[in-house]
TrEMBL record, chain B:
Domain Nitrite/Sulfite reductase ferredoxin-like: 65-122, 341-411
Record carries keyword 4Fe-4S: yes
Record key words, sorted: 4Fe-4S, Heme, Iron, Iron-sulfur, Metal-binding, Oxidoreductase
Domain Nitrite/sulphite reductase 4Fe-4S: residue ranges: 132-284, 465-560
Record protein name field: Nitrite/sulfite reductase
Listed InterPro entries: NIR_SIR_4Fe-4S (IPR051329), NiRdtase/SiRdtase_haem-b_fer (IPR005117), Nit/Sulf_reduc_fer-like_dom_sf (IPR036136), NO2/SO3_Rdtase_4Fe4S_dom (IPR006067), NO2/SO3_Rdtase_4Fe4S_sf (IPR045854)
Transmembrane segments: none
Length: 165, 565
């Protein structure tokens, strides 16, 4: 499935840990929260990321965050908006600066929202052509409220300029 | 005699869009047009399309699509009203239906026409954004905002701030359930603040800035709840930050496994007021507050974009002119007494135009009537109109010496009914005539009751009374908050109705109690007549229905309702 960053398709260099399998020693690997300790204990050059479910508490990552290169949030359904709040909490409360990926059932109409809540990578489903995602990335030029991004002010009030570049 | 319409850039009572706002609306229309295209091309499943169309106010109902157009905090310009008339005429069956959330619904819309309709709406700075779906809905406010004598603070400015803040909010567009906010700036709560997910009562703080009492977790529906006071002293500068905190807690902890338990009221009950407050406070404390800080400059910049009426200097004599008319014409006097509201400006009043003629459908207005209302607004009220949550239309600033002329015109057009606040000023949801969730028809029983109590003298004798009808437990007709409520139920495959008594919104909120088993439509109408007779027989001098009800309890009314004639 295509992986998007900044409205571009990029290559995915990460692997997801397989249930019951040992963690591969050198690759960039994504582990579930339950295997976080194991991942942190993997004393190699590979990078480490964590996959959260919508019910996981981002607070549980607090101690590990400085050692994580990736947090991946999962939409079990695009209607379940909890990952938006998880993303914001990671960026805003926990000051997380690494990659923030989103996977699962997301739709292009949510692309802008995801970015504005702090996600930077999106695993795009195959249902919609990638062109629709790229369109969605450019659809709006302004937003009305503050977000976690430091968007440029547009005119007055809270209005923000959403620059697609 | 006639008012000059104000220049369109600062229409009275309305927030003036600029080119950025207009661009945004057009981008939103384009997005929806594309969503419709993708749906038709099979790129979006109906499951995926549904929440997207709902966020543009488009429902699929019993017979057709229904489009709900937002009227932010109820304020409309005359030209916007004409646009609504045009849509009713061209895309619907010549009618629009004003609703209890200060919106207008069109019941016979085609999916393919919707992008075009949204485009037409956008041309007059209107939209259907977030009138539906699991997002922050159209923010409602006092229909007398900016005009009422008892107002301490014009709530439209903050309602507009909340509108902007909540529009396509990135984090809160896929909430567990719909989310409704109401805001009042008067001593008297006319917005049913405690029956909303968040109710805000604004007052003036010591520093000359607004302060808010924040109620949370109120609502009707199958579990009616009166909102809990979360804080009584929220400073204006923290308004956005605090609401973000409340919504975040709701988004994180609100139930998603059961849609009947997904509203914030259930979460507040589950955590308890204290537990909920602790979570909100923790979130609020942890937030980057500077980011969400609402400084006075922003409030003032938004206030400055509202047009304000320039009142006539000679209007002071209007009162005497009106007084003479009132003496000369008792019928007119009765209308003025029920349908006007005190204005802060001497010589003016706010006028409520009843959309509930005897035997009519509450809230239904023809396109011709909409055009007329627009013309009257231009002539008599600075080109501004308001839609009330009681499904009527208000002219906010009418010179008292223009009332007589207005009354005559309204009477000729079926809009002169003197029943505001009386028993035939009925709220009714669309019910089984349109709504796919309904158990019973709300409209015919509303029409029968309205015809039964049509006599103006009898209505005045009965006095202040709120009668609300919902076609099912979802309570769109606010039946729980009615002094008399009627709830449509299904009784072994037949439409039937339960009566509730003692509900009230406003300053002393209470939830109506069901008095007994359901009855047929005609039995219900008769039962209500007997309930009213009981009240008339047993009331203490000067007592309103709700007061008698509170004093006596429901027992005597129940006996009357179920007495076999
Ligand atoms: C015709 C299509 C309609 C449908 C399918 C519909 C659906 C619903 C549903 C499912 C609920 C229950 C929500 C809950 O408590 O979780 C509800 C409640 C409500 N609806 Fe509607 N409704 C419709 C029309 C209206 C109209 C015309 C209005 C007036 C603007 C309205 C205003 C309300 C209000 C005020 C509630 C009270 C619930 C609360 O906020 O606690 N609805 N509606
Ligand atoms: S109360 Fe029930 S019948 Fe009436 S509009 Fe709401 S959902 Fe439909």
């Amino acid at each position: 499935m295509p992986l998007l960053e900044n409205g571009q398709i990029i290559e995915d260099t990460w692997q997801e840990a397989q249930d019951g399998q040992p963690l591969s020693p050198d690759s960039d690997i994504l582990v579930p929260l339950s295997r976080l300790a194991e991942g942190l204990g993997r004393n190699t050059g590979g990078r480490l990321g964590v996959v959260l479910t919508p019910a996981d508490k981002v607070e549980d990552l607090r101690a590990a965050l400085p050692r994580l290169d990736m947090v991946c949030l999962t939409f079990t359904s695009f209607r379940d908006g909890r990952p938006f709040t998880q993303a914001r909490a990671l960026r805003e409360h926990l000051g997380y600066k690494g990659s923030l990926r989103v996977q699962g059932h997301v739709i292009p109409d949510q692309y802008e929202f995801l970015l504005r809540c702090g996600a930077d990578q999106v695993v795009a489903g195959t249902q919609s052509p990638v062109s629709v995602w790229l369109e969605a990335h450019k659809r709006f030029s302004i937003a009305y409220q503050p977000s976690v991004l430091d968007e440029k002010a547009e005119g007055f009030a809270f209005r923000k300029w959403l620059s697609p570049s | 005699m006639t008012q000059t319409p104000q220049p369109s850039s600062r229409q009275v009572g309305r927030y003036a869009y600029d080119s950025v706002d207009r661009t945004f609306l057009k981008q939103r229309v384009d997005q929806f047009r594309d969503q419709v295209r993708r749906r038709l091309a099979g790129e979006l499943s109906e499951d995926e399309f549904k929440p997207l169309r709902l966020m543009n106010g488009l429902y699929l109902q019993l017979h057709a699509y229904m489009l709900r157009v937002a009227i932010p905090y109820g304020i409309l310009s005359a030209s916007q009203m004409r646009t609504l008339a045009h849509i009713a005429r061209k895309y619907d069956r010549d009618y629009g239906h004003f609703t209890t959330r200060q919106n207008i619904q069109f019941n016979w819309i085609k999916l393919e026409d919707t992008p075009e309709i949204l485009d037409i709406l956008a041309d007059t700075e209107m939209h259907a954004i977030q009138t539906s779906g699991n997002c922050i809905r159209n923010v409602t406010s006092d229909q007398f905002a900016g005009a009422a004598q008892d107002e301490v603070l014009d709530p439209r400015v903050h309602a507009e701030i909340l509108r902007q803040w909540s529009t396509l909010h990135p984090e809160f567009t896929f909430l567990p359930r719909k989310f409704k906010i109401a805001i009042s700036g008067s001593m008297q709560d006319r917005v049913a603040a405690r029956f909303h997910d968040i109710g805000l009562l604004a007052r003036m703080g010591d520093n000359g800035r607004a302060v808010f009492e924040v109620y949370v977790g109120g609502g009707l529906g199958r579990t009616p709840v009166i909102g809990t006071l979360l804080t009584s002293e929220l400073p204006e500068e923290d308004l956005i930050a605090y609401l973000e905190a409340v919504l975040r807690v709701y988004n994180e902890y609100g139930r998603r496994d059961n849609m009947y338990k997904a509203r914030i009221k259930i979460l507040v009950q589950a955590l308890g007021a204290e537990g909920f407050r602790e979570k909100v406070d923790a979130e609020f404390a942890a937030m980057d507050r500077a980011r969400y800080h609402l400084p006075p400059e922003i409030v003032e910049a938004i206030r400055a974009r509202f047009g304000a009426p320039v009142f006539d200097a000679d209007a002071a004599q209007a009162e005497q002119a009106l007084a003479l008319r009132l003496k000369a014409d008792p019928e007119f006097a009765a209308w003025v007494r029920t349908n006007t509201h005190p204005h802060k400006q001497k010589g003016y009043c706010s006028l409520t135009i009843s959309c509930k003629p005897a035997g009519g459908i509450p809230g239904d207005v023809t396109s011709a009537q909409m055009d007329l209302l627009a013309d009257l607004a231009d002539r008599y009220s600075f080109g501004e109109l308001r839609i009330t949550h009681l499904q009527n239309v208000v002219l906010g600033h009418v010179r008292q010496d223009h009332l007589f002329e207005l009354w005559q015109i309204l009477q000729l057009n079926g809009l002169g009914t003197p029943n505001i606040g009386l028993i035939t000023d009925i709220i009714a949801c669309p019910g089984l005539d349109y709504c796919s969730l309904a158990n019973a028809r709300s409209i015919p029983i509303a029409q029968k009751l309205s015809a039964r109590f049509a006599d103006a003298g009898l209505q005045r004798e009965i006095g202040s009374l709120r009668l609300n009808i919902s076609g099912c437990i979802n309570a769109c007709g606010h039946h729980h908050a009615g002094h008399i409520g009627i709830l449509g139920v299904d009784k072994r495959g037949e439409e039937a109705f339960q009566i509730t008594l003692g509900g009230s919104s406003g300053d002393l909120p209470s939830i109506g109690q069901i008095i007994g088993s359901a009855m047929s439509e005609d039995e219900t109408v008769d039962a209500i007549v007997r309930i009213i007779d009981t009240y008339l027989a047993q009331r203490a001098p000067g007592e309103h229905f709700i007061e008698t009800c509170r004093r006596l309890g429901t027992a005597p009314f129940k006996d009357a309702a179920y007495a076999v004639a």
